[in-house]
Amino acid sequence: MAKSPLAGLKIGVIGSGNMGRALVRGLVEKSVYPQNISVFDVDKKKALETKKEVHVKIASSSRQCASLSDVVILAVKPPVLPQVAEEIATALTQDPLVISIAAGVPMAKIEACFKKPVPLVRAMPNLPALVGAGMSAFSLGRHALPKHRKIAEAVLQALGQAVQVPEKWLDLVTAVSGSGPAYYFLLTEKMIEAAYEMGMKVDVAKKLVYQTALGSGKVMAEYGEDPEELMARVASKGGTTEAALKVFQKQGFGKIVQDAVKAAYKRAQEISRGK
Hints:
Elements: E1 11-14, H1 18-29, E2 37-40, H2 44-54, E3 57-58, H3 62-67, E4 71-74, H4 81-89, E5 97-100, H5 107-111, E6 120-124, E7 134-140, H6 146-156, E8 160-164, H7 170-178, H8 180-197, H9 202-223, H10 227-234, H11 240-250, H12 253-272
Parallel strand pairs: 1-2, 1-4, 2-3, 4-5, 5-6, 7-8
Antiparallel strand pairs: 6-7
């Protein structure tokens, strides 16, 4: 069995919100020894809840968390990221890898907070990371080496799957997979509403729609066929699926989705520019 890139590394997670906690939980499930993980959050209650769940160490400050770690994960809100980066800059006694999962904060802005060249990775995970089914895209900073890529990939795989992309794509990643779960949630909500309006109980409709969403995602991921080919498998000529797809086409569903993704991309670019 190949040795994990995370074997023996001490990992610090600054921020214990939903994504930070999901990372810690995933890392422990990936056989990272809990006592090799330090967590800090300004909200002590959140940090203690994480410790109670997975028995990791609690750091007394962001600086202590960083000073103890070979890998420092910045899982804080974007507005406070520069402040946190500046706080830990003088505490980095070794040459740790820093991973930021804050949306919309470019690597150049993060790197400028440090006093010396620091191996940096910027990542964009999404909400399904909460259940270990996330999709994360990541980009390497100027000082990140191949060994850092392997470590970052292993960290993000604790949340699900990960793929490396150029940083210029990360705003588009935000629009597609970062915001993407909400698009699926909206579709499922409207399917449930339609079933209810036609006489079905909500709990039954939810069970049908949720499992259909889960199963459809697995088919797409595991079969590797294009969505068009999979639709053809379901849509018999003159059948119910064809009738539904014709309504989608007539109402311009495809253009609505494309316009929505473009709007999310435009806003992601604005946020990256500080607007």
